[in-house]
């Protein structure tokens, strides 16, 4: 059972995966596909961006995570979807495709969910706020994730929720210095990292996160901040999942 990698459209999933496959890695190394193959699959040279999708794509990523106990393999089902896939109307109109998607997710023990920042955050000067949801919209959208995890993911044991594009709303070097993983130094443990990030960045949905934990027995939810511009923060959720779910 691998890890499912999901999120809404335009939250940065593709660029995160691309940067994760960068050969200049620290503790997480994408074995297959390699950086060049992933680039050809995902980037649209003509549009100078990522390729849009109107259908569900499932891509396999194989990662190696370097832990104190040795190198561990993590197998990832990356589910790339049109933005409408999480809406009930789409699920009704595309029932067969939705059921196939659910089958994969229901058998997974780990999920990595990517979220965008919201307009209630303390953004860096010059950021165009209108490209992001309001805090109210963000909280309302997350309520649908609560329903989804509670209803459709009975085998889940670990959820890593990543607030992406952290370079827009925090001091990356400062936060990375506090949160970075080091197997041989007395850094924060996973619970301490989660508590720090929860209080600082996820407070508007704190009660909803507790609700997910209550509804799924034995589940652990951990919060992270990620950015393509800082490798340590980018790798952190994968190291966490690898620590518990790697083969």
Overall pLDDT score: 86
Shape: globular
How does the helix and strand content classify structurally?
alpha/beta
The gyration radius over C-alpha positions equals 17 Å
Number of helices: 9
Number of beta-strand segments: 9
The H/E string reads EHEHEEEEHHEHEHHHEH
In short:
The chain has nine helices and nine strands.
Keywords:
single chain; 247 residues; seven-stranded mixed beta sheet; two-stranded antiparallel sheet; 9 helices
Task: Give the secondary structure arrangement, pairings included.
Layout: E1 3-7, H1 13-20, E2 28-32, H2 35-42, E3 43-44, E4 49-50, E5 57-67, E6 70-80, H3 88-93, H4 95-106, E7 110-115, H5 135-152, E8 158-163, H6 172-179, H7 190-201, H8 206-215, E9 220-225, H9 231-245
Helix pairs in contact: 5-8
């Amino acid at each position: 059972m691998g890890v499912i990698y999901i999120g809404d459209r335009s939250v940065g999933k593709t660029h995160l995966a691309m940067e994760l496959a960068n050969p200049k890695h620290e503790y997480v190394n994408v074995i297959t596909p390699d950086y060049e193959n992933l680039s050809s699959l995902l980037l649209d040279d003509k549009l100078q961006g990522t390729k849009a999708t109107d259908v569900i794509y499932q891509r396999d990523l194989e990662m190696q995570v370097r832990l104190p106990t040795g190198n561990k393999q993590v197998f990832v089902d990356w589910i790339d979807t049109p933005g409408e896939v999480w809406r009930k109307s789409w699920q009704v109109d595309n029932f067969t495709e939705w059921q196939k998607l659910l089958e994969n997710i229901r058998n997974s023990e780990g999920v990595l969910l990517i979220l965008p920042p919201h307009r209630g955050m303390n953004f860096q000067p010059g950021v165009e706020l209108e490209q992001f949801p309001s805090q109210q919209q963000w909280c309302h959208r997350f309520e649908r994730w609560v329903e989804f995890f509670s209803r459709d993911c009975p085998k889940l044991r670990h959820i890593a929720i990543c607030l992406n594009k952290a370079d827009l709303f925090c001091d990356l070097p400062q936060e990375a210095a506090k949160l970075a993983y080091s197997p041989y130094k007395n850094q924060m443990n996973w619970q301490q990292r989660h508590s720090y990030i929860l209080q600082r960045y996820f407070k508007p949905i704190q009660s909803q996160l507790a609700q997910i934990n209550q509804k799924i027995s034995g589940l652990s939810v951990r919060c992270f901040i990620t950015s393509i511009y800082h490798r340590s923060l980018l790798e952190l959720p994968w190291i966490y999942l690898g620590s518990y779910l790697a083969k």
